[in-house]
Amino acid sequence: MRTPPSDGARRLGRTTTRRAAEAVARAIIHVCGWLAIVILAAIAIFLAWNSVRAFGEAGLGTMLSETAWYPTSDPGKFGMLPLILGSLFVTGVALAVSVPVGVAAAVFISEFSGPGVKDVMKSIIEFMAAVPSVVYGLIGVAVVIPLVKDVFALNSGMTALTGGIVLGVMSLPTVISISEDALHAVPFDLRQGSAALGNTRWQTTFKVTVPAAGSGIFAAVMLGLGRAIGETMAVLMLTGNAAVMPTTVLESVRTMTGTIAAEMGEVVQGGLHYSVLFAVGLVLFAITFTINLAADLVLERQRKRWRR
Fold first, then answer.
1. 281 or 15, higher pLDDT
2. Other CB atoms within 10 Å distance of the CB of residue 183
3. What dihedral angle (degrees, nearest 10) is formed by the CA atoms of 101, 103, 104, 109?
4. Of the chain's two ends, which shows fewer C-beta atoms within 10 Å, N or C?
5. Residues 6+ apart with CB under 8 A from 48
6. pLDDT tens, residue by residue, 138-171
7. What does pLDDT average to over the chain?
């Protein structure tokens, strides 16, 4: 006759099962963490592998320094400098729009709005982040292009300024959300200490809270910059796509993302032009990776600062 297990044996069995489940969960989490790194490395390797022909025949230094982008001429000219400058012009305008508006909005939401207003504004910001970029592009075509053309008396309103304004609006959710989180993370004791010294709410905000959240706000700006420089559809619709060296933001420009999107469908797979477009993508990947890495380092610095 079989003897039933004792209570101690049952507890030991449950403990063993729980430990085995925890070990499996830890293993899955570790694999997922490493998988993200492997995917990122695979993207870089994939871009570099497809850029090998461009590096060998056109040369990375030549592509980065030349000012002529005539990929269909014989021989083809693949100077990326107009594309890089076009991306920087558009991104610069986007930052000029998104940083002051975004930081001011974050300060209002974090420091001055009531709970009801804060919830509504955060919901609107989250909705803005979910709007497809092509919708922003359509609004830019219908509203911003005619406005820029009339205000500056231009022949065409498809300029770096137009693309930058729309990209600035598109970057606002990123800047506002992360800046508001940084302001919210500032210890309440600092606000109370400032108020105890006789400072008003405005003085506390701009002399204590905002400086204390400075590194987080900087990270928000960097991530907004990464959002702007990596955008494709809106700039393709709004900037005119002229691959020439720009001198002002009132000229048509072509960005790196716009070039890849416009030309990839027309090139011969495996050809030199095809490889050069991958090299453009690799340069863009390096820029955005550097920006996001810098933002992450700044955010980590802030976290360590407030753990003390």
1. 281
2. 21
3. 120
4. N
5. 282
6. 999 999 999 999 999 998 889 999 999 999 999 9
7. 87
Share of the chain above pLDDT 70, in %: 93
Nearest to 110 by CA among 27, 204, 23: 204
Q: Are 122 and 109 in contact (CB under 8 A)?
A: yes
Contact 98/172 with Cβ under 8 angstroms? yes
Q: Which residue has the tokens 């693949």?
A: 78
What is the helix (H) or strand (E) element at residue 294, kind and residue range? helix 272-307
Q: Which residues contact 221 (CB under 8 A, 6 or more apart)?
A: 95, 99, 175
Rounded Cα distance, 197 and 203, in Å = 11
Place of tokens 């619709």: 237
Single-letter amino acid code for the residue at 127? F
| Angle subtended by helix axes 81-107 and 160-184, to nearest 10 | 40
Q: Which residue has the tokens 């063993």?
A: 16
Q: What is the pLDDT of residues 101-117, one digit of tens each?
A: 999 999 999 888 888 88
pLDDT confidence tier of residue 36, bands split at 50, 70 and 90: confident
Of the pLDDT bands very low, low, confident and very high (cuts 50, 70, 90), residue 227 is confident
* Distance from chain centroid for Cα 267: 28
The backbone torsions φ and ψ at residue 185, rounded to the nearest 5 degrees and listed phi first, read: -80, -10
